[in-house]
Specification:
7-stranded mixed beta sheet; 22 helices; 23% strand; elongated
Length: 663
């Protein structure tokens, strides 16, 4: 019996000892956590319930040269509600008034909002969704409603801002305006002007502390940001909205008429290199056209006969030909090894001068006049082209510039027929903008300037940086050569392949181009082009039109498909001189027509009591006018206003939304 009691006591001592040791270990662990690892675990706890979030900066505006908006950031507001913050007294007093106010602004019934608010109060929802993507005007109205007007701590209103990028020109110049997007890994996709000058536009991000609440939602802590965001700078581009509209519509008309696959137009100011318009349109499967890719900047292709200008300049500079030299085109078909150069005119042009060969765009004449003097030393010809900078990229800030491609004697792709075929634009590749830059240099008396898309970077009214003309090559050729090819280009329009666009009232100079494309896949695929400048005597603008794969049965020659686009652009800019659209005054039944937009603008802006009539106005002018009288403007399409949702003459109520249809 005594032995059993002793065994029991030993076991009790053992258990007590183990418990004592366990208590010591627990005490040690608690002390270690508190004093040695406390900071670590407190940080983990805080991290699980609090986080620092990034606040995007407001992106700067992108403007056209005349101050019209090309891209802008619009602040939108999301509203949520912390149902725990208001006192019982305030909630019971104001819940009905708040529900009525929300119903009036957001469209659903008063009972719907009252039920949601009461349910959120009962379940202690600290992040109830109320409204999303509100304009500033609607945000101010909601913020002033009963209970919400007491602010975040007493009223429970939670305000979250974000920005959306809008393009007032809609789809016009969309690829040139472009975008800049950042993925989850931090990598940027940069397109067009938005991408090229994103480092100016994007600004500097701010930071704000948020706290985790129920259902995985995060609520801002405090009333301010830890680090305030810095807005981006504004970028002033060289684009002229009127010229852009002219170029876009002229190109679109031709693409639709000839059922072409895609095309582009670029208009450049001769002396400065400023790009005044750039339009790139591709066809959808439904036969509609939109800004699919930036063909003018990124698409290298064989230029065809527009390259004859480069070949002519090279030969004249090397003095291997003279403009009066006579060349026999024979019967319009001349064989080089196993290939035959062919003229578009059946039977050829007979014996013609070099100048005439340019005007008539004779392939056989060009093949002869380049092959014969350079055959024994083809490097001389190619080196001359390289000396003029044709093998180099332009170094554009816009991403995706196409690579110029030239065969070189000794390369594996140099054949006996390479040299004569280069003479009329096959076997080489240039982008439309690279081709235009050379043509612009001819118009500019030999000075080659870099195409330029922006003028200034500004912070409000303070200029941060100014971009001046950049010269690529001060003189690509002698003045005698420049004068000679200028005369040929003017005669091409006057009496050559482009005589169909000649006008005795307005001078133009240029060169047509018709080039087979993808001929190894299928016959009858062509690129139609025209490059030149206007006016011919004192060039102000240069322009290139390139249209890919027009339907052959309708037309495919450069003078038929592309040259009329050039003519329309040139005449609208210089001959017709665009004038401000006529506007009917807002007074109902008024027959008075005010042709001066500024006078009309002052009239409605000085006494904005009724809805203006903007039908027939350009979209840009209409949007500016309506926004300045206090309306929220939405629009579809581009061009002129065809319809407006609010009737002219009706009473004007601030912050109303008006929808415009542009055609």
């Amino acid at each position: 019996m005594a032995t059993n009691e002793k065994n029991i006591l030993n076991r009790l001592y053992f258990v007590a000892g183990c418990m004592f040791i366990f208590a010591l270990l627990v005490t040690y662990k608690l002390i270690a956590i508190q004093f040695f690892q406390g900071a670590k675990y407190r940080e983990m706890a805080t991290t699980a319930t609090e986080k620092m979030v990034t606040i995007p900066a407001t992106r700067g505006n992108l403007y056209a040269g005349d101050g019209s908006l090309l891209a802008t950031s619009v602040i939108k507001y999301d509203i949520r509600w912390d149902a725990v913050s208001p006192s019982d007294t305030d909630f019971n007093e104001y819940v009905v008034g708040l529900s009525n106010g929300l119903a009036g602004l957001l469209g659903k019934s008063e009972s719907y909002y009252q039920e949601r608010l009461r349910k959120a109060r009962a379940t202690k929802n600290r992040y109830l969704f109320v409204a999303r993507n509100l304009s500033y005007g609607d945000y101010i109205k909601i913020k002033s409603l009963p209970l919400f007007n007491k602010g975040q701590f007493k009223g429970g209103i939670i305000i979250e801002e974000h920005t959306e990028r809008e393009h007032p020109l809609d789809k016009m110049a969309e690829r040139t305006v472009g975008y800049e997007r950042k993925d989850d890994s931090g990598y940027y996709t940069r397109v067009g002007l938005e991408g090229a000058y994103g480092h100016y536009l994007r600004g500097k991000e701010g930071r704000r502390l948020k706290q985790k609440i129920a259902k995985g939602e995060w609520k801002p802590i405090g009333i301010g940001n830890i680090v305030e965001p810095r807005d981006g700078y504004d970028v002033i581009s060289t684009i002229d909205v009127n010229i852009q509209d002219i170029a876009h519509n002229a190109l679109l008309t031709s693409l639709e008429k000839f059922k072409a696959d895609h095309g582009c137009v670029v208009v450049m100011e001769t002396a400065t290199g400023e790009i005044k318009a750039i339009s790139n349109l591709g066809r959808t499967s439904e036969g509609k056209y939109y800004e699919r890719l930036n063909y003018a900047v990124g698409e290298s292709h064989e230029p065809g006969s527009t390259f004859k200008l480069m070949a002519m300049v090279a030969a004249l500079e090397d003095k291997v030909i003279d403009t009066s030299q006579v060349i026999d085109t024979e019967n319009g078909r001349i064989k080089f090894y196993d290939r035959t150069a062919v003229d578009s005119k059946w039977g050829g042009y007979g014996k013609i001068s070099v100048a005439k060969a340019f005007e008539l765009s004779s392939n056989t004449a060009f093949a002869k006049m380049i092959n014969e003097p350079y055959a024994k030393n083809p490097k001389r010809f190619v080196d001359r082209l390289f000396n003029m900078g044709l093998n180099e990229k332009l170094g554009l800030e816009i991403k995706g510039e196409g690579e110029p491609k030239f065969p070189y004697p000794g390369d594996k792709n140099w054949y006996g027929t390479t040299l004569p075929w280069m003479a009329f634009g096959y076997g080489v590749e240039l982008t439309p903008l690279q081709t235009l830059t050379f043509y612009n240099a001819i118009a500019n008396d030999g000075e080659m300037v870099k195409p330029r898309f922006i003028k200034q970077v500004k912070e409000w009214d303070v200029t941060v940086e100014t971009f001046e003309k950049e010269v690529i090559n001060p003189r690509i050729a002698s003045q005698s050569t420049i004068n000679a090819v200028k005369a040929m280009m003017e005669n091409t329009v006057r009496r050559g392949t482009a005589k169909n666009i000649y006008s005795p009232d307005f001078s133009m100079a240029g060169k047509t181009g018709t080039c087979q494309v993808e001929y190894w896949i299928e016959a009858d695929r062509y690129i139609s082009s025209f490059a030149g400048y206007f006016p011919a005597d004192k060039p102000k603008y240069s322009c290139i039109v390139v249209i890919h794969k027009p339907e052959k049965s309708i037309g495919y020659y450069g003078n038929i498909v592309a040259a009329p686009v050039f003519q329309q652009i040139a005449q609208k800019i210089y001959k017709d001189t665009p004038i401000v659209d006529e506007v009917i005054l807002a007074k109902e039944n008024s027959k008075t027509i005010e042709s001066d937009y500024e006078a009309y603008y002052k009239k409605v802006n000085s006494n904005p009591k009724t809805i203006p009539n903007v039908k027939g106005m350009s979209g840009m002018d209409a949007i500016a006018l309506l926004e300045n009288v206090g309306l929220n403007v939405r629009f579809r399409g581009s061009g002129k206003v065809s319809t407006q949702s609010l009737k002219p003459g009706e009473k004007l109520v601030k912050n109303q939304t008006i929808t415009l249809e542009l055609l």
